[in-house]
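Re: the request from the purification team.
They wanted to know what the chain is likely to look like in 3D before they choose a buffer screen. I agreed to run a prediction and write the result into the notebook, where they can find it.
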Amino acid sequence: MPVSSQSIADKAGVKVSPATIRNEVASLEEQGFIIRPHTSAGNVPSDKAYRYYVDSLEKMTLPPSEQHLVSHLFHQVEKEVERWLSLTATLVSQLAQNIAVVSAPKSADSKFKHMELLSLQEQLALAVLVLYGARVKEQLIRFDKAVCQADLTAISNKLNEKYAGMTRRQIKAARPELSAVEQRISDYLLEMMESEDLRIYDEPFLDGLHFTLNQPEFAQGERVRSILELIEYRNLLKSIMPRELSEETVHVVIGKENTVSAMQNCSVVIRRYGIPEEAVGTLGVVGPTRMAYSHTIPTVDYLATVLSRLMAGLYGRETAAEGDKTQAK
């Protein structure tokens, strides 16, 4: 809805004439900081204006009351990664009043942590493979001859000792001396790790769609349809991922900075979390370009930090001290 120059002067509390404001608005329009969506519309900030605003933001922190709420709720959930991620999606969507997307932690190259072999029949066993990043894979293995549980336990102990902490490529390069049965199990193990490495994304945890769709920018059917199609075809997470996403930095992608056309009426605030080179996930917010960046950025940053600390506790690692400066790019 268009707003008059006099209304702007009154609301801002500045002692200038409406004519001065009109001149300033005309100057901003010439510089590309404001645009008119259509002829009869009022001026609105452009992507360039929002980028200038985001880049000018200084250190931001989540209000203490919201930090306390986050801490309280996380103390109520069990120590399970999926529960952490589900709670994070709910909290971020409520705090940011937009769509929250949280991917499960994953390493680019899965690492062997532990395996168990369980005898099901004389010639059939279940291999349970645990990878770093709280990933568990299962595979049935059929043998040419009977293999007892004692032999399976001995084999799993041997492979656990030889492969601990190794990637698939490192295991292939190691080439330890193995019996025919051990080699068969090792081959299955490598296949399981390869399938994990080739998996791009699990279905992310998503919450808050109603917050975004209730906003006036999405009253137009085409904009709503674009987002719903990305969600329906499980492409939302892929669509919002920047080409480069560094660790411990909040990235803001505004409007046409998005490479996917369906996202070019939206902004994305996104950050990685987890343990670099071990298990890393992504936390993001999707909303209109006029979203409240000064609150959304510290929300994403704080919750990503919380998830990183939880993951570090799971792995017995240390993380950066609380209160590190939030950065946005």
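For the purification team: The two ends are 31 Å apart (CA to CA).
Please add any questions underneath this entry.
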